[in-house]
């Protein structure tokens, strides 16, 4: 069965612009989580959506937002881009919400964002 | 929130030898500890996980041990092969109703020398 699909895989933006990243979860998975990966900070949790509702949120500024659609596909948006937003953005899907406890995440290959 | 420390940051072993990666966590309420392997250009892939009611779990050449009292867990890879070369991440899930998702260690770059 198809895995987690993220688009676009690579993109370049300039400071002040905004960006939208897309994630299609594994069929039947209702939870989508987003993580930011950088060499300095490693993998950091952004937020989780389950059944179109944000269930969980990490410690990121309000410039980072997301949403989930009725087909479980999710998008995340970063507004007013800063140089420090350059990172690999990973999406992961799972059957249940992380709030339900131990939950196996399947990650996509990521969207690599470069901010100039 | 939870804090996960992972050591070493780089580990080089001869092919066929064993590799051990260690992690410690801070919150005793954490109850789920997965390990992920990330190859170049790919997302992390779950290789093994353990829940807090289990002390050890094994899957072929890979094993994970958990010491809840000391709050540390380790990944053991035996008979290492070239395809084991990758970055490995440990993680912990806090079950106290917080909103942190999985907390990851900073990663271990495992290099298998031929």
Shape of chain B: globular
Largest sheet composition of chain B: 6 strands, mixed
End-to-end C-alpha gap of chain A: 37 Å
Q: Please report the total strand number of chain B as a whole number.
A: 11
Q: Biggest sheet of chain A, open or closed, and with what strands and sense?
A: 7 strands, mixed
Q: Which overall shape of chain A is indicated by the principal axes computed on the Cα atoms?
A: globular
Measured on Cα atoms, how large is the radius of gyration of chain B?
14 Å
Percent of residues in helices of chain A: under 10%
β-strand number of chain A: 11
Content of β-strand of chain B? over 45%
Total helices of chain B: the number is 0
Radius of gyration of chain A: 13 Å
Order of helices and strands of chain A: EEEEEEEEEEE
Helix content of chain B: under 10%
The proportion of residues in beta strands of chain A is: over 45%
**Structural class designation of chain B:** mainly beta
Residue runs with pLDDT of under 50 for 5 or more positions of chain B: none
Low-confidence stretches of chain A: none
* Biggest contact: A-B, 26 and 26 residues
Topology at a glance:
The complex is a heterodimer of chains A (116) and B (114).
Chain A: E1 5-7, E2 10-13, E3 19-24, E4 31-38, E5 42-50, E6 53-57, E7 64-68, E8 74-78, E9 87-94, E10 106-107, E11 111-115
Parallel strand pairs in A: 2-11
Antiparallel strand pairs in A: 1-3, 3-8, 4-5, 4-9, 5-6, 7-8, 9-10, 9-11
Chain B: E1 4-7, E2 10-14, E3 19-25, E4 30-38, E5 45-51, E6 56-59, E7 62-67, E8 72-77, E9 86-94, E10 102-104, E11 108-113
Parallel strand pairs in B: 2-11
Antiparallel strand pairs in B: 1-3, 3-8, 4-5, 4-9, 6-7, 7-8, 9-10, 9-11
Task: Produce a short descriptive summary.
The complex is a heterodimer of chains A (about 120) and B (about 110). By secondary structure, chain A is mostly beta strands. Chain A is built from no helices and eleven strands.
Would you write up a description of this structure?
The complex is a heterodimer of chains A (116) and B (114). By secondary structure, chain A is mostly beta strands. Chain A is 0% helix and 52% strand. Chain A contains no helices and eleven strands. In chain A, the strands form two sheets. In chain A, strands 2, 4, 5, 6, 9, 10 and 11 form a seven-stranded mixed β-sheet that branches. In chain A, strands 1-3-8-7 form a four-stranded antiparallel β-sheet, with no helix packed on it. By secondary structure, chain B is mainly beta. Helices cover 0% and strands 58% of the residues of chain B. Chain B is built from no helices and eleven strands. In chain B, strands 2, 4, 5, 9, 10 and 11 form a six-stranded mixed β-sheet that branches. In chain B, a hairpin with a 6-residue loop joins strand 4 and strand 5 (45-51). The mean pLDDT of chain B is 92. The A-B interface holds A 4, 33, 35, 42-45, 47-48, 56-58, 90, 92, 98-99, 101-110 and B 31-32, 34, 36, 41-46, 49, 51, 89, 91, 93, 95, 97, 99-107.
